[in-house]
Amino acid sequence: MGSLESGIPPAKREGGERWARQHHPLLQRNRSRSFLFKRFSYIQWICSTCVFFFFVVLFQMFLPGLVIDKSDKPPWRSIEKELLPPDMLVFKERGVLSFGEDVRLEPTKLLMSFQRDAQNSSGGFNTTVQRFGFRKPKLALVSSFADLLADPEQLLMVTVSNALLEIGYAIEVYSLEDGPVHGIWQQMGVSVTVLETNHASSCVIDWLSYNGVIVNSLEARSMFTCFMQEPFKSIPLVWAINDEILAVRSRQYSSTGHTELLTDWKKIFSRASVVVFHNYLLPILYSEFDAGNFYVIPGSPKEAWKAKNMDFPRKDDIVISIVGSQFLYKGQWLEHALLLEALRPLFSGYNSESYNSHLKIIVLGGESASNYSVAIETISQNLTYPKDAVKHVSVAGNVDKILESSDLVIYGSFLEEQSFPEILMKAMALGKPIVAPNLLNIKKHVDDRVSGYLFPKENPKVLSQIVLEVITEGKISPLAQNIGLMGKTAVKNMMAVESIEGYATLLENILKFSSEVASPKDVQTIPPKLREGWSWHLFKTARSYEFIANVEGHWNQTSGDSTKSRVVNDDSFVYEIWEGERYIQTINSKKRQEDEEAEPCSIRGLGRKYIKAKRADRSKNDLHERDEGELERTGQPLCIYEPYFGEGTWSFLHEYPLYRGVGMSVKGRRPGMDDIDASSRLSLFNQPYYRDALGDFGAFFAISNKIDRLHRNAWIGFQSWRRPPGRYTHLLLLYSGMICPVLITTCNESLSEIAENALLNAIKTRKHGDALYFWVRMDKDPRNPLKKPFWSFCDAINAGNCRFAYNETLKKMYSVKNLDSLPPMPEDGDTWSVMQSWVLPTRSFVEFVMFSRMFVDSLDAQMYEEHHRTNRCYLSLTKDKHCYSRVLELLVNVWAYHSARRIVYIDPITGLMEEQHKQKDRRGKMWVDWFGYTTLKTMDEDLAEEADSNDRRVGHWLWPWTGEVVWRGSVEKERQRKNVEKEEQKKRSKDKLDRMRRKSHRQKAIGKYIKPPPENANVTTLLNADA
């Protein structure tokens, strides 16, 4: 046993094997022969494989170039042996008989996002959320009536919009040009607003007031300038594209050096939430622009529109056209062979000598550059067709011409496509009788022997019987002609149901409605009259594509001057201008510095006051913090701040001294203006989370932080940017065939000059004392069409949880365990302020901010964890990054009412003032003890002391980040800190002097310098001595 474990026997076996190989050459010869046999078999196998692949490649070379489209579906089932012609059985046995795989185009990313949103919409909250549905969902349709002519795309949008109105949507149309389609919109009760050309690329419309936007043309490209800027980037946008002109021209951009134009188009395509096409070929043509947002809604009246007024001359020849799928696949040649085999009985009485070209067959398919014509000619010769009876024509540019000259159209593709073949729609619209296999999407829209002929795809022999019935005595039979006319009638409204349902379903998936918006009804509730057909009217059919050429021409002119891609051609606020302005400022600053260094010492020795003034002037030019507007505001009693976020809001802001902008983000600040940077005043707004969650309310915290350094006016006001630019917006309204200028205003109106003067006069004379002035009423807010009272309206815009949020927040804020009721907000017929547009004394504003900081901190403490992690809160039905803003929008009313401030409404147009909720009627209803200054100041100092101590609370705490931390102890601490710094400075100076005195290697003086006497002095001395 020990020897078995020692490993010696294997060594002996190796020696034995070596001995055997040396002493038995027969064994060695057999091993060599076996190796040669194996080597020969391996080489033979390689050669056989190479020969096999050689013949496969050779066989493929004589077939047309094919494109194989793969799908998840199984391939089409093989034809039964007994139904195949005898000469085709060999292909069946060899496995060559395959008609390709079914073509599928699935928007995977979009479908996954829809599914994800559907799962998240049922998120679990401890608090129940509910929808009130006070107003309809609003859609904006941006269209372009190009060249004052209508087109089938407009017909499609009119039909879809009519159905959307029926299920509960409210639609407003914006057009870049006037056109005759306004009569349709007028009958539907939809207003049409024509934007001026110079406003097309600027943001003059508050798109946030709409739940979604539908763009219906390539010509609306300039409108994307606004949609690609904040705060309009998040608006759901559907872009419907029904033309292939851009896809065709985009192939030339790279070869001609228009890479910037190509990049610009890609940016625009990526901005759209969904890009909608009406067939499955367009997404492939536009694949270069695909950003994962392509979606197909099949159906368009385009073919019926084009063919409705066409007439065809009579001819003696009978032309049969064999058409197929718009996609190329490997089994196409076999399908054409089967069809030609089925059509051979038509030529039973003809031969090559007697054939007089009365009957012709045209095979439409393949490309002109391919060798498919040779394959069709070979097949026809093998089937003994007369010469020139069968002809192949490529698809490119020949479809319409061939169909117009055809008498019978046979659809020869056996692929199950996702929608009704568009080429069959063309043929039916032209009144041609069609014959097609009974595929699922074909028999869904074509009734056999009513609007067309169908044959089973498993039995192509039935096609021979149908063709012999259609063509009798060298002519198309009367029955076939009637079926062609029936097909023309059927195609007129074909796929309208699919299109309407597709748009309704898409909008249902991408639009997110707030709680005060009613959910649209189910699409099945639309009356059949509106759902089962297009809204046909007599329109002209001409259409121009000059827009694409104009865009390319503009890029040709500017390609040499620009090194960066630009989004819009006529945008006046482009980044290149900002960079140029910043570069000029830098050069001027360096030049001033060089000039100062080169000045003589007499000029550099000016007083300190002049140097400080010069430095202040330099900083003013560089940072835009001080200018003439600020100097004018210094003498005014009021300054109104306008919070904004993003370049899209610039055209809504005022530019005269009474107003001043507050940029919530550094990137979106207006160049050349003295706007305030909220993030530099309060580091909290460097976090996008709180910038979005607080919204415009965050500007209150930024302004109040060390307010004495910024705001020196007795009164302070705020106004939301969400209103027309200036005071009103001058737009053109189409009405009764006339273009009428109108003034468009929104819920958040700005103060007119009369109202501004009335407000300033009331402030100067202290007409109402310590009062809250506001000019946007809650009872006129579009979100409150039913004029609900305060708490009901607050619940409606906060998913039914406004009262719960106030109750929980006040309990946490005041450290109260039970709060049986909320602060009463009476229903006395008066109204309240909304949209953060009001004015207060500066001292009262600071007190309001002190209250707001504690309120927001308590609100954030109960929502932050869930909302920051999932972007969901119980104040919204869907994901919402502006969760806190709607509750805080109404907070100023609660504070002003219960702190005994007078509340005055000022009409924004006339300036008339009316006091709301008079103080004498509030007695016994106000919670003065809760909202009084003494109570709030004590609570504020307690929080400041806690934040300033070493025992501050652990974890997330928002309050110290919303403003200054000031209490009695902090003042004493500041004084002590300054004293310590002063003592340390004295000590450092004293130590420095001591070190200087202790230095022992100080250099000794060389000696005194004695000035020699002048020479004439010595001569005078000698003369006196001689005398």
Automatic annotation (TrEMBL):
Feature: compositional bias, Basic residues: 995-1005
UniProt feature, compositional bias: Polar residues: 1017-1027
Listed Basic and acidic residues bias regions: 974-994
Bilayer-spanning residue ranges: 42-63
Annotated Pfam families: Glyco_trans_1_4
Keywords on record: Membrane, Transmembrane, Transmembrane helix
Region (Disordered): 974-1027
Alphabetized PANTHER family for the sequence: GLYCOSYL TRANSFERASE FAMILY 1 PROTEIN (PTHR46635)
Name the record gives this protein: Glycosyl transferase family 1 domain-containing protein
Species, as recorded: Brassica carinata
Taxonomic lineage from the root: Eukaryota, Viridiplantae, Streptophyta, Embryophyta, Tracheophyta
